[in-house]
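Technical annex B. To support the medicinal chemistry partners, we prepared a structural model of the target in complex with S-adenosylmethionine, based solely on the information shown next.
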Amino acid sequence: MSGAVDARIAELVARYGLPDESTRPLAQLLEALDDEHAPTTVRAPEEAIDVHLADSLAGLELPAIRDARSIADLGAGAGFPGLPLAVALPKARITLVESIARKCAFISAAARAAAIENAEVVAARAEEWADGIGRNDVVTARALAPLGVLAEYAAPLLREGGLLVAWKGRRDDDEERVAAAAAAELGLEIEEIRPVAPYAGADHRHLHLLRKVAPTPARFPRRPGMARKRPLGARVGGSSDRPQR
Ligand SMILES: C[S@@+](CC[C@H](N)C(=O)[O-])C[C@H]1O[C@@H](n2cnc3c(N)ncnc32)[C@H](O)[C@@H]1O
């Protein structure tokens, strides 16, 4: 790991007031990503430190994430934002839900390499994870789906009072309008759309916070794939949820 990357990890540890012991597992996550088989296009530590680690740790700006005891990260891919949050929040249990088995194997191996003990991987679609229903304080998702679809994945999995936190890019009126309509059907309410600046150049990053304010109707989750095929809230707007670079 280069000195610049080490310095950047130290900056993040200081910025979020993490214990010194979190430095090593964060570096080990970057080492795990620096492999041609890692299921992400951003592998070089000099880039991944921002695009994956800093962006994931932006969630720590939210008291609801800092205080959560159970977090489900849907569509975790190579493990983001779930694995860095597991390092930062040792008292929380993080479940990374990912539908592709090869990616689940990568997440498990990366968690082992970084000696992360409070994360588990569920190889399933979010809509099929029956054990997670009503059990999570927070659901996170980055680069998974339009906001309305995320709301439908997350609502059944949240406890009442729980929070969906969606990492999104530039704001999109259509997407937000559809999401608001979907949320109303699901027992969710849009609480806040918070601009964040996890690293220089991440100019349009927003965290969308949707609170579960009422029980989700029993007809959810719908069959796998339906949330995308027949989205709630009528028209689906554009999605600007890609990790920023
Ligand atoms: C673009 S990747 C984003 C990965 C990661 N969250 C990130 O930001 O780096 C989206 C991931 O979601 C997974 N996925 C798609 N639909 C899913 C679903 N319904 N349930 C669980 N995982 C899903 C895909 O296999 C893929 O790994």
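Notes passed to the chemistry partners:
The chain has one domain: 3-229.
The mean pLDDT is 95.
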